[in-house]
Design goal:
heterodimer; A: about 240 residues; five-stranded mixed beta sheet; two-stranded antiparallel sheet; 10 helices; about 35% helix; B: mainly alpha; 3 helical TM bundles of succinate and fumarate reductases; about 0% strand; binds FE2/S2 (inorganic) cluster; 4Fe-4S (chain A); 2 iron, 2 sulfur cluster binding (chain A); iron-sulfur (chain A)
Amino acid sequence: MSDRSKLLEVSVWRGTGDEGAYETFQVPARDNQTVLDVVSWIQQSADPSLTYRYACRVGMCGSCAMMVNGVPRWTCRTHVKRVLRDGALQVGPLRNLPVIKDLAADMDPFFDKWIRAGGVHRPSRSRNDPIQQVPPDDPGRVEANKGIECINCSVCYAACDTVAGNPDYLGPAALQRAWTLYNDAKVEDRQAVLDSVSGAGGCHNCHSQGSCTRFCPNELDPLSAIAGLKRASARSFFRRGE
Amino acid sequence: MLNIRLYMAQRLSAMVMAPLVLGHIAVMIYAVQGGLSTAEILGRTQGSVWWFLFYGSFVLAVSVHAAIGLRVILHEMTGLRGRWLEVFTCGIGVLLLIMGARAVLAVTFA
Ligand code: FES
C-alpha cells in the first residue's frame, strides 16, 4: 500500500571541489523508488541547482554511480527500500575521485587510468585481412567474456581501499579491461598488455581485499581478473628474466 | 608503489623464508625439549657452514621481504613517494641486513 504522507530524510552532498557539506531534504516516500528517483525529485521539486549525472536509467550507461549510505552503488538500479537506514538516506559523490560539483564526480582519473592500463584496442589485422574467427568456447574467449559487461561506472574504483591509499594504482576496472584484452585472440601483443600493468601503479599493488568484486553492480569479478594478470606477469617475468 | 620486480622480490623472498621459518621453529623446539644449554648450542653453530648458510639466507630474505612490505605500508599510510621512498626502502633493507648479519656472525663464527 502506498503511503503518500511518509517522508524520507535525505542528506545530499553539496559543494564544489574539496569544499562542501551535507544538506538535508524531505522527500516523499514511494512504494517503488530508486535512489536516482530521489535525487531527481530533489532537483526537480526542491533545488534545481543540484548537480548530478545520469543517462540511461536502466543500468547500462554507468553514469549514475554515487555513494549511498557510504557504499558505492548504481543509483538508477538501487531501490531505496533496500538501502534505507532508519528512514534516512545519505547520498554523496563517488569516493576516490575529485568532485566537480555536488554529486558529480570528475571521472577523468578513472578514464585516464583505463588508457594507461592499455585499455585501447590495438587490432592485429587490417580491414584488408579476412575476419578472424574466434570460437566462442575457446578458453581465452571464455575468460575474456567474464569482463566485457563492465559499464565503466567506477563503483569498483570507489570501493577500492588500495586506490584510496595509492592514487597511482590503476584500479580494478582498468585492470580487468587489461585482462580481457590479454585473453582476446585478436590482440597480438600480449606482452604489451602485461607491460602496461606491471609498472609502479600496476596490478601488483592489489592487496586482494576484493571490494571490487563485492560491490560490482554487474556482478563481475575484477579481483580474479587482477589475480590472472599477476599470474601471467609472473610467468612472463621468469620467461624473460625481468 | 610496487612494480613487477619488487613484487617478485617480495614473493620469492617469502618462498625462501617459509621453509626456513619452519626449520627455525623445529630447531627451537628441539633445543628446548632436549634442554640444550647456551654453550651446547653455540658449540654446534660456531664454525658451522650449514648454520651460517641457514640463518644467513634467512636474514637476506627477511631484509628484502620486510623492506618492500614496509615500503608499501608507508606509501599507503603517508603518501610518501619518489626518492625518499626509495631511500626508506633501501635503508630498512640495509638496517635489517646489518642487524641480522651481526647476529648470524655472532653465533656461527668461532
Ligand atoms: S543511469 Fe545509466 S547506469 Fe544508471
